[in-house]
Amino acid sequence: MLMAIALMATAVGGPVTFGDWMVVCDNGARCTATAAGEAPLDVTFVREPGPDSLLEVELDDFNNVEGRKVTILLGDNKTDVEFVARRTKSSPTSWSWHAAFQPGHRVFDELHLGDSISLLEKGSDAMSVSTDGLEAAFVYMDAVQGRLHNESALAVRGYIPAAQVPAAPALPVITVPPFSERPPARLSDAEIARQRASYSCERENKRTEPGDKIDYVRLDESTTLALLTIECMAGATNSSERVMLVDNVGNVRLAKIEYGSGPDDDWAEALPGAYWDEADQMLVTSGRASLSCGGSTQFAWDGQKFRRAKDEWWGACDIGPTPPVTTWRAEIRVRPE
Fold first, then answer.
1. What Pfam families would the database entry show (predicted)?
2. Are 86 and 96 in contact (CB under 8 A)?
3. Region(s) of the chain under CATH 2.60.40.1880
4. Beta strands in 116-255, from DSSP E residues, in sequence order
5. Burial class (CB within 10 angstroms; exposed 0-12, middle 13-18, buried 19+) of 325
6. Which of 32, 38, 45, 63 is the most buried (most CB within 10 A)?
7. Spatial contact of 134 and 111, defined as CB atoms under 8 Å apart
8. What are 271's strand-pairing partners?
9. Is residue 130 a contact partner of residue 13, using CB atoms and an 8 Å limit?
10. If you classify domain 2-164 with CATH, what class do you get?
């Protein structure tokens, strides 16, 4: 099994499932294992690359944590790991239970011996997730991060010094323009009509009126983003948006978008499920592969085009839903004014 998992680990980036767990290691070698399925409790393990990184764990039961006293069980045993409430990584507006510990902590023996991870609260039934596949998930994480038989390994520990664990690989860098407080430019009614006349619907569908369902975002001092919803290209689960750029005198062009890691860019006829994420200052496109899984990509504006900045995936299609997990990311830097 060890050899098979080590071979799988050479294909970093895509989600892999082991039992009831999905694992993703991104292009920066950050590895995340999360329980998949319809359980009332999300459990996620995250480890950064490098010799000194801890293993972080997050438990989220989707309820307010304030004033609550809970017990964490590994199998039938209460763990002595201290869990504290802090903001949930996937949703900054909510809170969950977090802990971090060094490899070699006895919690690993407890995880190995127990068949579940549970959150217990007085007066309520325990909420549990199975640990079936978790050990294999840890082996996969160790293999991707170069820890097999290392003293810092999660599962297959040995005597190789932790100092020999490879450092984190460098991430792609995107330099973005500084924030502009200028109000966004607007499309004229004539331009909106021209844009809508440039595509045809194969079936009858209500079209939006000029000015409706168009989102405007100021990208920099000279450029505004205009997202125009194309009703007749909307699917059952996704809308479609035409991605346009407007300069300060009203000239309009389709945005250039870097979809992948290759040298070619594509002009955006439309993006599925596109919207502007105000918190991250990113253009986002998203879609479902099935009812239990899907993905999204964030694009950063570099002053000339939108560049791929982060990919996320949620759900193991063959098992069930999971929290969103990053599969690819870039480092964002703001250009000095």
1. DUF1176
2. yes
3. 2-164
4. 116-121, 127-130, 173-176, 214-218, 223-229, 240-247, 252-254
5. buried
6. 32
7. yes
8. 241
9. no
10. mainly beta
Residue 210's pLDDT band, with cuts at 50, 70 and 90, is: very low
Task: Match 């050899």 to its residue by tokens.
Answer: 3
Q: Are 112 and 135 within 8 A, CB to CB?
A: yes
In terms of DSSP bridges, do strands 271-272 and 275-277 run parallel, antiparallel, or are they unpaired?
Answer: unpaired
The model's confidence at residue 316, banded by pLDDT at 50, 70 and 90, is low
In whole angstroms, what is the distance from residue 144 CA to residue 66 CA? Answer: 37
Would you say residue 7 has pLDDT above 60?
no
Helix residue spans in the chain (DSSP H): 2-8, 107-113, 134-144, 189-197
Sign of the CA dihedral running 297, 294, 11, 259: negative
pLDDT in tens, 23-55: 999 999 999 999 887 778 889 999 999 998 999
The fraction of the chain above a pLDDT of 90, given in percent, is 37
Give the CA angle between residues 82, 88, 91 to the nearest 5°: 175
Q: Tell the residue number behind the tokens 């549990």, with chain if given.
A: 128
Residue keyed to tokens 């359980």: 39
| Amino acid letter, 257 | I
Under DSSP, the state recorded for 28 is T
